[in-house]
Amino acid sequence: MVPRYSRPEMVAIWSPETKFRIWFEIEAHACDAQAALGVIPQEAAEAVWTAKDVAFDVARIDAIEAEVKHDVIAFLTHLAEHVGPMARYVHQGLTSSDVLDTCLNVQLTRAADILLADLDALLAALKARALEHRNTVCIGRSHGIHAEPTTFGLKMAQAYAEFARARARLVAARAEVATCAISGAVGTFASIDPAVEAHVAARLGLAIEPISTQVIPRDRHAAFFACLAVIASSVERLATEVRHLQRTEVLEAEEYFSPGQKGSSAMPHKRNPVLTENLTGLARLVRGYAMPAMENVALWHERDISHSSVERAIGPDATITLDFALARLTGVIAKLVVYPEAMERNLNKFRGLVHSQGVLLALTQAGLSREDSYRLVQRNAMKVWEQGADFLTELKADAEITAALDGATLDAIFDLARHTRQVDAIFARVFGEA
Amino acid sequence: MVPRYSRPEMVAIWSPETKFRIWFEIEAHACDAQAALGVIPQEAAEAVWTAKDVAFDVARIDAIEAEVKHDVIAFLTHLAEHVGPMARYVHQGLTSSDVLDTCLNVQLTRAADILLADLDALLAALKARALEHRNTVCIGRSHGIHAEPTTFGLKMAQAYAEFARARARLVAARAEVATCAISGAVGTFASIDPAVEAHVAARLGLAIEPISTQVIPRDRHAAFFACLAVIASSVERLATEVRHLQRTEVLEAEEYFSPGQKGSSAMPHKRNPVLTENLTGLARLVRGYAMPAMENVALWHERDISHSSVERAIGPDATITLDFALARLTGVIAKLVVYPEAMERNLNKFRGLVHSQGVLLALTQAGLSREDSYRLVQRNAMKVWEQGADFLTELKADAEITAALDGATLDAIFDLARHTRQVDAIFARVFGEA
Amino acid sequence: MVPRYSRPEMVAIWSPETKFRIWFEIEAHACDAQAALGVIPQEAAEAVWTAKDVAFDVARIDAIEAEVKHDVIAFLTHLAEHVGPMARYVHQGLTSSDVLDTCLNVQLTRAADILLADLDALLAALKARALEHRNTVCIGRSHGIHAEPTTFGLKMAQAYAEFARARARLVAARAEVATCAISGAVGTFASIDPAVEAHVAARLGLAIEPISTQVIPRDRHAAFFACLAVIASSVERLATEVRHLQRTEVLEAEEYFSPGQKGSSAMPHKRNPVLTENLTGLARLVRGYAMPAMENVALWHERDISHSSVERAIGPDATITLDFALARLTGVIAKLVVYPEAMERNLNKFRGLVHSQGVLLALTQAGLSREDSYRLVQRNAMKVWEQGADFLTELKADAEITAALDGATLDAIFDLARHTRQVDAIFARVFGEA
Amino acid sequence: MVPRYSRPEMVAIWSPETKFRIWFEIEAHACDAQAALGVIPQEAAEAVWTAKDVAFDVARIDAIEAEVKHDVIAFLTHLAEHVGPMARYVHQGLTSSDVLDTCLNVQLTRAADILLADLDALLAALKARALEHRNTVCIGRSHGIHAEPTTFGLKMAQAYAEFARARARLVAARAEVATCAISGAVGTFASIDPAVEAHVAARLGLAIEPISTQVIPRDRHAAFFACLAVIASSVERLATEVRHLQRTEVLEAEEYFSPGQKGSSAMPHKRNPVLTENLTGLARLVRGYAMPAMENVALWHERDISHSSVERAIGPDATITLDFALARLTGVIAKLVVYPEAMERNLNKFRGLVHSQGVLLALTQAGLSREDSYRLVQRNAMKVWEQGADFLTELKADAEITAALDGATLDAIFDLARHTRQVDAIFARVFGEA
C-alpha cells in the first residue's frame, strides 16, 4: 500500500481495529448460537456483548501476541480483560481459521462493496460523457492509423459497456468470497454444531461455506483477485485511450489541468497525461497480484498457512490500489477536456481519404469487379496523397467513377452522417434507452 | 501445444480446417442477411451455400496468403474458386475482424463446451469416490502435521465442491466470449446493417456484441483465460493432495499403476505419482497464459493487432492443456487406489494424541480454567510422546482428569464417530442429497 | 509454437530427431568414459559409435514408448536394434535424468547461441541506423508530449545500448544452463564415477554441475527464461517506439511496406505497423513463460517431475518466439522508412515553444529570480500558444527579456545544434568510438 | 510492505527521510561540479553543503507538494528555506528525473547490499549445517518416493550451491542498476555538461548511464526484480524441503520450537512448520512483483511516468519482503532440529529394497541380460514387499543370484558407504575444499 495511492475508506477495512472488531462480532455471534444450543451459558453470551463498544487496544494485543506467538489467542486474552471470567466460554469449538477466514471474507466483501460503488461512479461519468458527445465525430483508428469516422460518445459508450461487464464480474466475485466457515479443526464440525456457522453467517450477511477444511478454499479468493486484475486491465485500456488522445500531435482531449498547476503556462504545450500514465502503472500492480493469489489455491491437505502472508499483502494492496485507480479514472473522465474542433481537424487531415473504403464498396455494389473498383479508387487516392488534392473533387472529375456512381451517391458516401446513423441504436444496446 | 498433452477433439477446434469452416459459415449467414435486406442478390447468397460441403484447401489458401499477405482475402479468393462470380458479393460491408473475432469466439465457446464436459466427468468421478469413501476415516492434516480425523470422502467432496464452483465460473466465462460482431471498419455499422449481425449471431448461437470497435473487446477474453487459470489452480490442489497421499511414508492412496508398467515390481516401493506431478506442471502453464491475455485488453484506440499473436498461441495452448489436464485428473481420481488400512494406521500413529484438543475442550466445558485444562492434558500427552504410552489409558489413570470427565465421556471423545457424525450433513450441502 | 512465428533453425533444436541425436551422444560419450575406467568393455563403447550416423526412427521409438511408458528406455531399446548385444553396456550407472537434463541444457545453450546471433544482427542494424541518423533531429517526447529536441540516431543508440545489455545478460544466462550432470539416481555418484560426467561435459562443451540431485537444479532455468522475458520486454519497448512514430498524426517513420502489399494505394494513408504490433504481442507471450519457469524451481526433495511438462512447452515456445521476434525486429529496423522532414515539421509545430525551458534556464543564470524568469517566459509563451506567434520573435521584442539576454544569446538557445553537440560524446559511450 | 514481514534496516532505505537525503546529495554534488565548470558560483555550491546535516522536514515538504503538485520542486523549495538565496543555483540544467532515477538506483544498490549480506549469512548457515551433517545418511526421494540414500549434508550443500548462484546473479543485478544519469530534459546534455554526471556518479559510487532519455532505461530494473523473483523461488525450494521433512510421517527435521511457544506440549506432535510455510507465501509475493517490473520497460518515447507508481510499490515491497525472507530462512536453517535416527528409520522402512537398483546394475555388469537381471531382482523384491522379508537375506538365499554375485559383492551393494564415498568430492566442488 502506497499512501499516495490510497483512500481512507478502503484503508480502514484493513486496519487492525477493523479486524479485531470483526473478530469480536464473529466470536460474539458464535457465543449467541452456542448459548441457544445450550453449549455455553446464556449469561456468557451476554457478557461477551458487554465489550460491544470497546475500542480494542491494538498495541496491547500486539504485545500479548509477541509473547504467545498466536494472534487469535492474543485477541481472546485481551477480550477477557474486558469481558471477565465468562470469556472462557468464548471461541469454544472454534479453530483460529474459523475466525480468520470468515474475517477475511467480511473484509473482501466490504472492499467489493466499495469497488462496486466506485464502478457505479465511473459508469455514471462515462454515461454522462457518452451522452454529451454522442455525435461528436472523430476519426476512428485501427493500428494507430486513421480508419473511418466514429464518435467520441461511442468511445465512452464502449468503455461504459466494458465497465458494466466489470461490475457484473465483480458482483459474481463478491459472491464467491461472501462465505462463512465455523467448522472446527479440519472442517468436520466434530466439536461444534453447524447451527453456529449458520447463525454467524446470517448475522454477517454471508452464505455458509458448504465444505471447508479448516480453511475456506482459496479458489474463491483466486477468482476474486483475478477479477480485480481483469478490471485493472480495463482501467489500463481507457487510460491508454486518454494518453493517446492527449499526445501533442493528436490533442483531441486532455486531462483537466488546474490553473495553479506548476509549469502550465511557461510551457503551455506541456500538459502531461500524468494521471492516466499513473493509472497504467497501477493496473500493472493489480494484475501482478493475481498470480500469487492463484498460487495460493494448492494448499497442502486440509490446510497450510502459506496463503496467509500473501493475503496480508495483496488483500489490502489489490483492493486499495484498484479503489484508488477507479476513483482517479472517474475524475479523469468526468473532467476530461474534449476538443471537438481538433477531432474534426484530425479527421480531415487527408482530405477525404478516410472515405476510400466506402467508395470501394459502392463501386463493387454498383457491379464493378473488385479489381476495377480498386484501380479506380487507387488512382484518385494517390493524387490526394501525393499532390494534396481533395478526394471527393477528384472522384467527381473521374469519368469512370461517375459512370458508376453519381454525384449524390458520392456525396452520401462522404457524408459523416453515414457514420453516426447507428449511434442511437448502439446507445440503446448499451444504455438500454429507447 | 505439446502433442503428448493434447486430445484430438480439442485440437480439432483449432485446426485451419475448422477455422475456414467457421469463416465460411459467418460469410454465408451474412450473405443470407444481406440478401434479405436487398443489399445483395438472393442468388448470390444461395451461390455461396453451394460451397457448404467443400473441404477448403488449406495449402492453397496459405499459398494465396503468402502472396496477398492477408488471411481473410486469401480465404475469400479461394472461396471464389468454388462459388464463382457471385463470390464478389461475399464479405460486403464486413471488415476482416468481424470474421476473425466472431470465429475466435465460436472456437472459444466450443472449447468451453468440451471443458464443461470434462468438468462433468471429473465431478462424476469425484462424487463416486466421495460416496464410496464417505466414512473412510483418515487423519486430517494442517501444515502437513496430524490434526484431527476426517474422511477420505470429505476430501473428495471438498474437491467436488471446488470443481462445481469451477464449472459455474466457466459457464459465466463462456457467456462472456459467446458474442458476435459484424459491425464494420470501426464498429459504427456505417456500411452494414445491424440486422446482419443479429442474423449471424442467432445462427451461430451467439449473442450480439452490444458495442464493438472493429474488435470484440478483449476484457471478455482476459476473463475467460483468467477463469481457466483459476481452474488449473484447483487441478493443482487436487493433484498435490494425491502426490502427498502417495508419498512413501504416507501411502494412503496411489495412482493406478498398470501391471505392465516398467519397473513396477523390481522396485515395488517405487510407484511414482507421475500423473499428478505432470498435472502440477500443466497447471503452471495454464496459469502463465492468463497474464498475456490480460495484457491484451489495452488495445490502442479502436484496435491494434497485438492481441492476435497472443491468441494464436494461448487460444489453443490454454484450452488444449486444460482439457488434457482435466481428463487426466478424472482418470487419476476414478482409478485412484485407496488404502483405508494405511489411513487407519497413520491415524493411530500417536496412540490417541490426535484427540488432545477434544480433551482440552471437554475439560474447559466441564468448568476447568484454560490453564488447568492445558496443564492436565500436557502432562499426559508428554507421556505418550516420550514414552509411547496410550493416551486414553493415561488419561483414565489421572485422577484430576477423571474428577472432571468420567470414562464414558473420555471414550466418547476418543470415538471416531464424533468426527464423522456431520458427514451426511456436509454431503447434503455439497451433493444436495437428503 | 505457432508455425507462422517460428524459424526452422530454432525449431530444429526442439525436434525429436535432434533430441535423440543428443541422447545418443551423451550415452556414447559416457560409454567411452566407462570403458576408459574399465567399467565396460572397450568394444562396447566402440560398438555404440557404429550408430553414429543412424537417423533414429522417431515413430519406432514412440511405438516402443507407448508400450514401456518410459522415453529413455524406449530410445535405448531402439538403439539396441542398431548396436546389437553390446547395447546392454549402454546407460550403465546413469539415471534417465542424467540424459534428459543434460540434453535439455544442450538444447538451451544451442538456442542461446541462435539468440545471441539474433542479437548481434539486431545490434548491427541498430548501429547502422544510429550512425545514419546520428544528427537527424526530431522532437523528444516525455509523456507523449513534446519536450526538447533529440535525434533519431540517439533513439537507435539507446536501443543499441539496451540490446547490448540484453546480450550480456543472455551470455550469463547461457552459462547458467550450460552444465552437465551424470551423477546417478539421487546425485551421489553411488553407481558411477564422476570421471564419466567430466568426460561427457567436456565433449559437449558444458561445465559439470557441481551438485545435482538426480536433476540439474531449476533455478538455473528460471534465470534463463526470466532473462528471455526481460529481453522480450526490450523488444516491446522498441516496437512501441516504432508504432508511435508511425501513428497517422506523427508519421516520422514507417515499417517498410512492399509495393505489392494489398490495399496500400487505395488507402495510401493506411499503412499499419502490423509487424511491431505483432512484436508487442510476442513479447507478452515470452514474458508469460517466465512465471511457470520460476514455479518450476521448488521441486520436492531430490526431484519431482512437475517441471517436465512445463519445459516441454516453454522450452520451444519461449526460444522459438523470441528468435522470431528478434529477427522480425531486426528486419523492421533495417528497413524502417525514416522521414526527416516530418520530424522537422513536428518539431516546429509550436513555433519555438520547445525552447522555453532553455530560455527559463538562461534567465535564471543571468541572475533573475526563478519567479521573475517564469513570469517573463510565460507571457511570451502564451502569445505563441493562443495567437500562433513565433516564440523567438516575441522574446526579442520583450524589453525585460532583452535586458537580460541579448539577441545572440537567444539565437543560441534556439539553435538546434545545442541539442546535438553531445551526440558524438554519447555515441562514443555507446559504440566505443573516438 | 507488511510490518510483520519487514526489517528496519531495509525499511529505512525507503523512508522519505532517506530519499530526501539522497536527493540532497545528488543536488549538492551536482553543484560542486557546476561550480568547477564555472556554471554557478563556488559559494553557491558551498552554501548548499551548509544543509548537510539538516534533518529535512518531511511534513513540510509534503505540504509544499500538495500546493505545487511536484515533488522535486517541493523539496527544492524546502531546501531553499535552509540554504537561502544561493539555492537558486541548485538543480540548474537538471531535470527531475535526473534526481529521481539516480536516487532510485542508489536505493536499489543499498537494498542489494543488504540482500547480499543476507545471502552471506544464509550461505554461512547452510555451510555449517552441511559440514555438520556431511555424512548423516538419509533416504533420497524422487517423486516423494524413496529412491536411494543420500546425506542431509548433501541437501544443505545443494542449497548452498543454489544460493551461491543466487548471490552471483544478485551481484550482476546490482551492477545493472548501479548507474547515475544527469543528462537533462531528454538525455541530450543540452543544458548540462556530462562532467556533472561523471562527478555525481563517482561520488555516489555509481557508473554513468551511457545513454539515458530523461529516464534511466527500465530493462535494468526489470532484470533486477526478475533476479529477486528467481532468488525467491530458491527460497521456496528450500522452505518446501523443510516442510516436507517436518511432515508427521517423515519427521526427519523440525523448525526450532521455542519452549514457551503456545500449545507445544499439550499436542507434542503438533509442531507446525509455520516459518517455512510463511516463506513459501513470501516467495509467491516476490515472484509476483517481477511481472509489473517487466511491463515497466516499454515506456513511450523518451519516457512516460507509468513506471513510477509501480516502483513506489515494488521497490520497497520486493526488497523488504526478500530481505525478511532470507533472514527468516537463515534462522530456520541455523536452528533446524535434525533427527538422524528418524532418517535412519525411514531409510530402512523397506528392509533393503532401496538397494534394488544397485543389485540390478551389478547383475547386468556380471553379464546377465537386462531381462534376466530384472526377473531375478523382481522375484526377491516381491517377497520383501508382500511378506516383509529382508531383501539381502532373500538375495543371498537365491541360487541364481549367488551364481552371479557372491556374498561380499552383495554386502558391498548394501553398504551405505557406497552412497557417501563421493560426498567429499562433491563438497570440494561446492565449498572449494581439498
Q: What keyword list fits this structure?
A:
homotetramer, 434 residues, mainly alpha, Fumarase C, Chain A, domain 2, Ribonucleotide Reductase Protein R1, domain 1, two-stranded antiparallel ribbon, two-stranded parallel sheet, 19 helices, 6 strands, 65% helix, 5% strand
Description:
Four copies of one chain form a homotetramer. With 434 residues, chain A is mainly α. The first copy, chain A, folds into two domains: 94-344, Fumarase C, Chain A, domain 2, CATH 1.20.200; 350-418, Fumarase/aspartase (C-terminal domain) (Ribonucleotide Reductase Protein R1, domain 1), CATH 1.10.40. Chain A is built from 19 helices and six strands. Chain A has helices spanning 8-13, 16-36, 42-49, 58-68, 71-83, 96-132, 152-177, 194-204, 219-246, 274-295, 306-335, 340-347, 356-365, 370-387, 391-396, 399-404, 407-414, 417-420, 423-431; strands at 137-142, 145-151, 179-180, 207-208, 253-254, 337-338. The first copy, chain A, has a two-stranded antiparallel ribbon with strand order 1-2. A two-stranded parallel ribbon of chain A has the order 3-4. Chain A has a two-stranded antiparallel ribbon with strand order 5-6. In chain A, helix 2 (16-36) packs across helix 6 (96-132) and helix 6 (96-132) runs antiparallel to helix 7 (152-177). The radius of gyration of chain A is 30 Å and the shape is elongated. The two termini of chain A are 44 Å apart. The model of chain A has no long low-confidence stretch (mean pLDDT 95). Chains in contact: A-B, A-C, A-D, B-C, B-D, C-D. At the C-D interface, strand 1, strand 2, helix 7, helix 9 and helix 10 of C face strand 1, strand 2, helix 7, helix 9 and helix 10 of D.
